[in-house]
Design brief:
elongated; single chain; mainly alpha
Length: 182
């Protein structure tokens, strides 16, 4: 093969492979952006939402009234935990459990809030009004999965536009762009 043909073949290969490389890079960055950071405090959803059967809206106050789910404040956590004076399954006082002690020592006594990381953090150009979805009769499990079975909450579904639109269509909800986008 002549040198100019080799050069032309190399350029053609580069031009044809560039979109594939760019798309793969975008997917990698997109997937990475949805990974969950470890929370600053080990909150066990399986215990609270599963075993204790505490309703999601008790800790995530305002979910049915606003656009965001909100996270519990230290006073929310402590309002329950300060009254736990019974004994646990291994006969120790509940208040002496290591995570409750961490809650007390690192947050309550220091009057410091827990800076929770968002598991579902929508892009800035997307609005997701929890209130509208709850008022339409959707259950938290439909998007968030069985949180009551998770010790550490992980994303049930990466909320991409196709997934949202297919749900809207299945439930006869509006699919106009302005419903979800600013």
């Amino acid at each position: 093969m002549a040198p100019e043909h080799k050069l032309l073949a190399s350029i053609r290969l580069l031009v044809l492979s560039a979109p594939v490389v760019l798309i793969a890079s975008f997917i990698g960055v997109y997937e990475y952006s949805w990974r969950v950071k470890p929370q600053p405090f080990p909150f066990n959803h399986q215990l609270h939402a599963g075993i204790r059967q505490i309703d999601c809206k008790y800790c995530h106050r305002g979910t049915d009234k606003g656009s965001s789910a909100g996270v519990p404040s230290i006073s929310d956590c402590w309002s329950c935990h300060q009254n736990l004076t019974g004994v646990g399954s291994n006969k120790e006082p509940v208040i002496d459990r290591p995570n409750v002690q961490k809650l007390l020592k690192e947050y309550v006594e220091q009057k410091k809030e827990i800076n929770w990381y968002k598991v579902y953090d929508m892009p800035e150009h997307v609005k997701f009004p929890h209130r509208a979805h709850i008022n339409a009769g959707l259950q938290c499990v439909e998007c968030h999965g069985k949180v009551e079975e998770m010790q550490v909450v992980k994303m049930n579904q990466v909320p991409h536009m196709g997934w949202c639109v297919s749900c809207h269509r299945a439930k006869n909800a509006p699919v106009d762009c302005t419903v979800c986008h600013y």
